[in-house]
Amino acid sequence: MAMSDALLRSRRDAKRLPADSPWIRARMTLADRLKRLRFRAWHRGTKEADLLIGGFYDHYAGSWNEEEVALFETLLEEQDVDIMAWALGTAEPPARYAGTVMQALRRADYIPIAR
Prior knowledge:
Elements: H1 2-16, H2 22-26, H3 30-42, H4 47-60, H5 66-75, H6 80-88, H7 100-107
Helix pairs in contact: 3-4, 3-5
């Protein structure tokens, strides 16, 4: 009985944690993290940001390693206008985002164009 009480308590506590907390992230499988990232990438708040960030996710996420997934999770915490400025080259990204993910984001060869 004590074991189930502890389990219930830990589940209740987990629901109170922010979705991006390290405790929650550590208990998610990579597939679950990618599903969650896809949703967050495509639901940014503006159509422009959805196309830029969601299109980027769809094009590149399948080839990401654990480190790149973690970097993209962190990147999604940034403001859309900042991400878009970094991608379009109108602002320099912080050093923490330097690397293959930012290089790919700046190529902008992934943006779906309606015809």
